[in-house]
Amino acid sequence: MNKFELARQFGKALSTFKIDLALLHLQKVVRKKNYIRAVIYHDTPKNFSTSLEKHFAFYQKHFSPVSKQDLNRFFQTGHWNKPKPGLMITFDDGLKSNFEIALPLLEKFGFVGWFFIPTGLVDAPGQMSWKEIQKLDQNHEIGCHTQSHLRMQEGLSKEILQKEIGESKKILENKLSHPVDLFCWVGGELQTYTRSAHNMIQKTGYHYAFMTNSKAIGPKTNPYFLDRTYVEPFWDIKEVTFMLSGMIDLLYSKKRRQIIYQLGF
User: Fold this and answer.
1) 0.90 surpassed by pTM
2) Pick from 124, 131, 148, 248: CA 20 to 30 A from residue 80's CA?
3) In CATH, what number is assigned to the domain containing residue 179?
4) What is the tens place of the pLDDT at every residue in 19-42?
């Protein structure tokens, strides 16, 4: 069992005594509700729709939705002006199950979905179509997840980086008829965060970059270092509560420091 799985089991134990809920409440108090959390999903298949609906009901109870306008205002003013902390519900890979299963639940519970699309995979089996992505774009947020779902390892040429980061941005903007300034890194392993890719993300006009290293987003967070917390659609609420309580953030603290060094922050 790896450290991540051990942490999940530890979280279940904490929930027996409602310590996870106490930690979630403490986080709100300490931060004065002036923060945003982001969770990350991938596939959201139909057989987990009941569990996923429970997740969204939990989110509605404890968090407020976050639109791109909300995120911009938060960084501009330094203040989160809603009664509950913000929550960005993000989806990687442009999977059709996100459109068919997650989208109706997002709209039922009043949340904004943040969908990160590998442009070269659109219309492939199991993937969303451009028509579906354009429909999402009406009320939700669309960002780039490279062109071919490529991890940004060391040694990639400038031409490949331009294709995966720059050209994919242009494809999205052409299909959606508006600027796209959201980028999401692929993979999340330490070696997939490289300075050359980071420089290309900035150079090509992205304003926000999303990672997978679990930490609350505050008003002084670097917008190119927006961390998300991993969640599976089949997890029970005890596991979800623990993941958002702040405890799992400690597991990623060393990795976050290493990435900061690697990217030259």
Assistant:
1) yes
2) 248
3) 3.20.20.370
4) 888 989 999 999 999 999 999 999
